[in-house]
Amino acid sequence: MTSAPGRRSSIFTRLLRHGFTDPSAAERLLDSAGPAPLRDDPVLLDALGATADPDLALLGLVRLLEAQDGATARQELLDTLIAAKPLRDRLLGVLGASEALADHLARHPSDWQALVTYEPRDLHPGVQEFERGLADAGDPVTLRVAYRRCLLSIAARDVCGTIEVAQTAAELADLATATLRAALALARADAPEDAALCRLAVIAMGKCGGHELNYVSDVDVIFVGEAAGGADEAKALRAATRLASHMMRICSETTVEGSIWPVDANLRPEGRNGPLVRTLASHLAYYQRWAKTWEFQALLKARPVAGDPELGEEYVAALQPLVWGAAERENFVADVQKMRRRVVENIPATEIDRQLKLGPGGLRDVEFAVQLLQLVHGRADASLRSGTTLDALKALAAGGYVGRTDAAQLDDAYRFLRSMEHRIQLHRLRRTHLVPEDEADLRRLARSLDLRTDPVVTLTREWRRHASVVRRLHEKLFYRPLLDAVAALATGEARLSAEAARERMVALGYADPAAALRHLEALASGVTRKAAIQRTLLPVLLGWFADSADPDAGLLNFRKVSDALGKTPWYLRLLRDEGAAAENLARVLSAGRLAPDLLMRAPEAVALLGDGDGGGLAPRSRASLEQEVLAAVRRADNAVQGVTAARGVRRRELFRTSAADIVGSYGTESQPAEADQGALVDLVGGAVSDLTAATLAGTLRAVVREGWGDSLPTRFAIIGMGRFGGHELGYGSDADVLFVHEPRDGVDEREAAEAANKVVSEMRRLLQVPSSDPPLLIDADLRPEGKSGPPVRTLKSYEAYYRRWSLVWERHALLRAEPVAGDEELGRRFTELIDPLRYPAAGLEEEAAREIRRLKARMESERMPRGADPKLHAKLGPGGLSDVEWTVQLLQLRHGAQEAGLRTTRTREALAAARAAGMISEEDACILDEAWVLATRVRNAVMLVRGRAGDTFPTVPRELGAVGRYLGYGPGHAGDMLDAYRRTARRARGVVEELFYGGS
Q1: How far is CA 311 from the centre of its chain?
Q2: Helical (H) or strand (E) element with 305
Q3: pLDDT of residue 118
Q4: String of b and e for 793-803 (b: at least 16 CB within 10 Å)?
């Protein structure tokens, strides 16, 4: 039948409406000989439309019909399909979800009848039912066929929702148990003399042992052997080894019917290097003397499944005391945490965002957390000794070891992630834990989970939501009970012992767990609203503190802030209600000394960490800062009060900038760390420079107002130099400046000079008066004649000096000169005065270039601190700030007059202009920019971590770790950070050698 040209057939439209993605192909299939009688059957179309992949389901049905042995068999299938809804739903559900099982049915077309039975006993089969299903298998090939037939029945109940994910996993484990028994029976039948010599027990481990197997997974086992009937032990073990090896091959080897699954015995003592089969005594000796922590963790799931049942039970009974005593081992919790980190680190970067099992927020996070708590608390509580993750989680909640709400959320997330994993594997029966990238695969996966509205988007959103829950909760399972351990609980409620609480704190990286628990007690005890809210917040905060290099400092600082602000209603409301505030606070308090010190001097600045209208960490503009500072000065009664107010604004804004820098470097749960390191450097440099300029403007106004009223007898301007003029100040930078003045009309030059000098002296004094605010040091040593010259000159004096006496280094220094405060017109004229000096029309004389190189070489040799490693000195070392800046500045001196883009005080802007003008290659410019950004970040990190400026990496391990964390390196990777710095600096030095020292 064909439709009119240009019009779609009605069947095409119906197919499209029922979820077919290729209705034309589906229409052709329906027109084929097999399913033609079903073409117009609305029940069939509805049933196909209800499957995960209607196109795949229809194709599988056509193949199954074509594979039937004759017309009678085909008609029987068609009749049953039309008449029996249970079969229709099961069969089409499987065909729409699993291409691999559709292949099996095409090869074994009568196996569809395994889905016809629909009786209560068929709904929840156990090991015995599966053993009956495998009983007729007489060789590895027929065992595979029988296994797939049993698997077909599990998959059918799974995709139809007859059984939920935990029951599916249990049935898959039961089927694996029956299969191992059948395989061992085949091996015994092939070697009866070996079977007579030994007792062999097969112990299931991993997911099979835990009764939570996947559709396709390695089946982890351990073998235990003993001599039978007085046989020689050595001969018996060789016989047992042959039987075990044969059993493994029966399951693992590929035949015409494929394989079942690999049997993996690498969890045995000594792994693949150890004997495949050991006696019970040998197992015990190994675990008592040599076993590592992870091996006891693995034994949590040990379960006898095949072979000699008595020997299997003896094995488990003998090892149980060792398993439940493992938590007493030194560094037990830390070892488990380290193992988890190692698993994540070994995930290929291209896969980590798609990993359902091993990635952050994945299944393994849940399993590790639950197993750790089982091992810690299962020593005294036998109810926790389950090998099944969800059962153990339920028991932990019932015993008070984790919060009930947390356990419920984790249970829900785990079930969703396991359901995703099951359906991904079911499609082709391949062992994978990666979420597919193909749109069609994602659509089928989503529909198989009953996500039908905008399936791909909905699936992605739900997956990320559940993964986020796991990330948030998997370590939090440690934290909340810690609060209960130090808080008053009702009689009869479960609580952690002091020792258990201490172990948990050590696991989280606390160097002084006793002090940390005292802080927790102070924060969480009591019946006040403050204590109640903090009990809610602390489990999350502890996790964020643990993610830093100094959890102890984070918790202590939080206690200090809480003591200062805890009775302030807005503070508790801010942390409770504003999503970003609590996490931002935790990051800031545990990242180092500078930001917490700034905050402690005025704790109300914590309001800046919120995400509401009253907060925000975005830096303010220079204009708005200057407006606030000048307004504060106007309100002050005298210069001291005015400058104190200006310094208070500076302290608050330094905190805002440092907090923004820390949060951007660490990232948050909702916002990843800033990938553009240069953007963070520009943020800090611009914000601190603007803040310094506003502070100087306010101080100048305060001093002038007190001494002279509204007008100084001389015009006065402040010129920023060095990093200040370049908008590149760091947290610990001095303000390099020049002071310039010009007497007003009719004012005596001597009177004007005295006024200008008094202004400079008073500004310096007031900005360094000891107070709770950090001082601002003014450095005017770049002025003409250096320290020997007057601190302030008239514009004419500058002109005369530069015309007659200026040295190369002074012209060089003027490249960074920019007016920052005071009389704008005077500042503009100063700039016009120096432009011909710093951007000479004829370029830089070769002798001057040689002099600059000599100065640079002398500075490298004379200013390098004694004992410092030059390769790790961020300012003066090879490839450091000085190297990059002097190279760029040499280009500015040479070509600034001709190339407008080079006429800037900012290093990165000048470098980009040189690249755009073709003066430096794209590659070399990127190398220099990367090195300059990294060196600047190192200096900022050192100041944030230590609270004082420094140009080299700290030597204290915890401080070095904090610098690494700021730079994006995880725990234990300080060495990688130093290697990366050396590598980056070495590449930059190569470019400097060519452009600065070797260029013409």
Answers
A1: 45
A2: strand 303-307
A3: 59
A4: bbbebbeebbe
